[in-house]
Amino acid sequence: MLWLRFLVRRVGFYLAAAWVAITLNFLLPRLMPGDPADAIIAQMSRTQQLTPDQVRSIQQLFGAPDEPLWRQYLSYLGQLTRGDLGVSTAYYPTPVSEVIGSGIWWTLTLVGTTTVLAFLIGTALGVVAGARPGSIFDSVASPLSTFLGSLPFFWVALLSVLFFSSTLGWFPLGGGWDNDIPIGLSAEFVGSAVEHAVLPAGTILLSSVGGWLFGMRNMMITTAAEDYVLLGTAKGLSPRRVMFAYAARNAILPSVAGFATAIGFVVSGSLLAEIVYTYPGVGYLFYQSVASMDYPLMQALFLVVALSVLAANFVADSVYGWLDPRARETA
Amino acid sequence: MRNGKVRAGVAVFAFFVLAALVGPFVTDAMGLSPTAIDAAASLQPPSAAHPLGTTMAGEDVLAQLVVGARTSLLVGLVAGTIATTLSVLAGVTGAYLGGKADALLTAFTNVFLVLPGLPLLIIIASYVQGRGGWLLVALIIGLTGWPWGARQKRAQTLTLRRRDFVMAAELAGESRWRIIVFDLIPNLAPLISTSLLGAVVASVFADAGLAFIGVGNINITSWGSMLYWSQQQQALLQGAWWWFVPPGACIALLGTAAGLINFGVDEISNPRLRAATRSVRRRVRKAAMAGE
Known about the structure:
The structure holds two protein chains of two kinds. By secondary structure, chain A is mainly alpha-helical. Chain A has helices spanning 2-31, 36-45, 52-62, 69-81, 96-131, 136-149, 153-167, 187-224, 227-234, 239-276, 282-291, 295-323, 325-330. In chain A, helix 10 runs parallel beside helix 11. The two termini of chain A are 15 Å apart. The mean pLDDT of chain A is 79. Chain B is built from twelve helices and no strands. Chain B is globular. The interface between A and B is large, with 67 and 58 residues.
């Protein structure tokens, strides 16, 4: 029952956060110097005749000069609820939602898999390092993970392309799959997609495993000194049992809580990694939209990324509230 | 400061500050220019004339690196200061005042904590399109980089506000602002200074990321703009590692220095992380022997 109440409160918080994201998205083009709506209309009418309907849609998304702000806000919200995010100027006349739909699966698969993998691998290694602080493994893995974690994502990506693709020729230079193979669920396509995903996934793993390792190690050491762990040892349980059933079980809680905030960092970092690997996901689309000043696509991508991060956060939060009863009372 | 990791981190940091301050004069004296274009010396590997090689346009990489250190650190310092000031305002005031003000500030902080920062930065920066130069970039980074620090400071202030000296000041009739400025903030100084350092380094990272995408200040020499141009002109495919390895390595070193300092401060504030090493090992060994 308590968990349910906790959930309801969290839903409220994330709805508020989503509202802030949407409102920011509404306000930014209107607060910025210049008139984005005019710029977009001018840019689009160079290639195609715009219908009055399209002009109105752009003005609702980016600012109509004569309308009061509150009315613009209402029509903006109305347009969003209809799922209308405007028309991409770079991929004209494809609607923005279609362009995003083509990229989001690549990113979800890549970032989703690597985030979960990084958490599992990092936490497991952290238990090992924290169980015996000062051991050979700990004194190598802990500083190494701090070092790897402080490397800039996109730079590691650049180096890995140089080394593994250019020099050794083990992996393709970029892209999401071999363009000669039609997209579909064929063994050939999946194999090619996996081959193209190895380097981006490896980079994200390399940069994010360390954080989990380090956090878990420190919590393991802190909990190992708690009375109830001592009690476990005093009861004559095997050290392994004490380590996992007593210490690690409690030490993992902050890591799960941290999982929520870490998602945002991983998403930000993998945007940059996608750009280096020209991986056909949301990050690369974002880059292209910025380079070609495709404001409708850029704005919509921000909204999609922000809302996905919020959703992932909500899931992580709920799991945490379920694992740790104390969180439910204070949240 | 007796902690070895903290010392090593501070030393690396000091080295970069020094390089940023006097480095450009040294390379000038060596006759190296970050902007002089020399078509005859395009993409040369490191040599005596160009210790770190040249770019596509024949500019000297070493000269760019030290001038870039100046820009990158300046952006980092300004943005980090803005972010830290905001985090103190939001975190300390909220935690001390409590009640509705705290609830509001905490909710505000948490919302900005879960919104992904880099995409937001990219959007704002691309609307601004380099207008306002590095200062505006620093301002944007600073304005989006405060929530994490605010959360940290709030937690620490919550433990401080119940201490005796705060109580004493309250009984003496001190105003709330006086207590925050003269009693709470000085006691938070160690936390504030490490978080300032973290914010500076995070801002250097953000600046480099923005420039790398091409929405930062790519026409001013910085570590990020070096990476941007090397990527644009396909240094990678031509194997010109001396162009993009040095700026990335500098950013990475700065990050490692911040990591070391954090590492060390953790050990100082939580002695178990340090003292546990030997005693736990002994205990584990004893337990293992007892088990046999």
